[in-house]
Write a structure and sequence with these properties.
alpha+beta
Length: 680
Amino acid sequence: MHEMTKGSNASLAALSEHIDSVIVSLGWGSSTGEGDADVSVLLLDANGKVRNDADFYFYNNPVAADGSVQVLGKTPTAGGSEDRISFDLTAVPTEVDRIVVAASRYEGARFGELEDVKLSLTDGSGEELLRFAIDDADSVSAIIFGELYRRGEEWKFRAVGQGYDTGLAGLAMDFGVDIEDDAAAEEEQVNSAVDDQPADTAPASSGESAPQGLLEAVPAPRQPDDEAEPRKSNARPRTAKKKVTLPKAAKKTLAENEAWKEARLFPVTALKSDRDREMRATSVLLSVMAQVPEFGRRLTAAFGAPAGRMETFTEVTLPHGDSPRRPDGVIRVERAGKLWTALLETKTNGNALKADQVQAYMDIAARRGYEAVITLSNDVALEGSPLVDVKIDGRRKHKVALWHLSWAEVAHQAQMLIRHEGVGNAAHAWLLHELLYYLQHENSGCHGFQNMGPAWVPVRNGIDDETLCQGDPRALEVVESWERLIRQVCLRLGGELGQKVLPIRRAKRGTDPKALRASLADQLCLDGKVQAELRIEGTPGVLAINADLRTGKLRSSIEIPVPEQGYPLTWAKRLVRRLADAPADLHIETLTDGETGGPRATLERLRPEPADMLPKENGTQIVGFRLSLLKSMGSSRGSAESGFIRSVDDAVHRFYTTVVVHLDGAEPRRAPSKGGATTG
């Protein structure tokens, strides 16, 4: 792996043979877990300018029509999150000379407030080729991380690290993007017009042009949804096709009674054995991937697959010594005459992947020149801990990447497309809806992570009778299962909301994930608790979930800062009004700058007298409020009605839907100061 410095460049062909498609990742973290930025990509011609506004890609215009660029979105990392962009370099138009990769912050935020700001680039096999760390971000609000550029027939990468005090607007203008003074005002007018349109229509299809003066390619920052009424997303770029989503309200059934079951494209009632479930689930998924390009591309782009025509196959026999092997599926993508191929090994109903099977498929793929092996199961992969250990023959010139998908991730991507982002036509939306119904049916076996493992009961018993000792490997198993569960909770909640939900890991930069889990396991042995924090886009704080195995209680909570201006009593009254529909047993604690803490009470007690939230001591400064809900946790290790997994999922969902949705949108975190408002 090549370490880059500012101004240095590197030839991609000199680093790898698999550079037809690459993935560039921009990463950062923060001590609070709340720092974030938006990535953007500009395609430039030989004059260093964009050809038109369509050459600017960002979160609201994420995919190029020719498949050369796809903004994949955010994924959690050990210290924060990273944004990934997939590039199919074989599809980049010949008139494009450079590809600039940048990121920008908003609402006055600066990159100097973030930690571990870096760029990395991986090839089509998943191998990291180069890394570029930016240590001098300081006060800039936008940064050009790097650029891919042509030298003859060769692609090279240059580490740039150039900052802009003027943010995204200044960066965009430097590359020829037109920004008019009234663009923001006209964008607001278009958003208002969009609000008046039916839910299943788009403001501008491929055959319509946007109003003059509206620069759709340069986005306003993503704003939290803190208005009284929900707002629609920004107008789509002029080049986007009309998207179709399913109506949220279910149509009235014509059935005489509940015993009449609607006919389904993918029936699940006849599934009896695990083998039946695996074969049916694999065939159903691969068929929909091939028929719905948006969905197939969404699942394979992160694995280095190019954008192109996809075909999928099941029950394929491949030679392997004396006993031929039959992988559950094969995915093949054709782009510009070149083929990308991945073998698929599927497990359902909680069955574990077998190392010898995966090893055999890795060997077959290496011999036949295939690019990847993908495993798909209910389990969730952890950073730094592969689900299956395989041996890689270093003597082989051809490298094969091993990737993992969980069924929860598949369901999440289907949910995001049909309920929030839209797909190309109504038939595709219906196919995804049928797939989602199949995956969520109790008989499909595709339910995601469902078991805390054999160590769960012994660890709980050891905590109850105080016999669990530090260093016990069973505690580490529970911590790993907890992390898998939290990742799945994020996927499910994000799919329902249509927003990014990411787990936060508060650790020092460069901390090894395995060492961190070992530390958390020792802490579990000491205090009998596991905790997690979730960052939900558009919320004013971090949602924390705490499972106390000693008391059998789950605590969901969020800390919200007070506004920059105003009076404490006004803050208290306004908070109580916002929580008018929240549960009466909601606990509210006033956070102060002192060590003793502030008053705490239930919402039921505070509703008639919000002033009880104010500290009695004069001069005590209020810095925020902590809202918490308590719930009894399930006792069993599974996801049944009485299980621990179900109770955690329900606790997070209930807390968000009954408490967090009533709060104001994200506000700048208020730093305590002696000049701030005080009580008294």
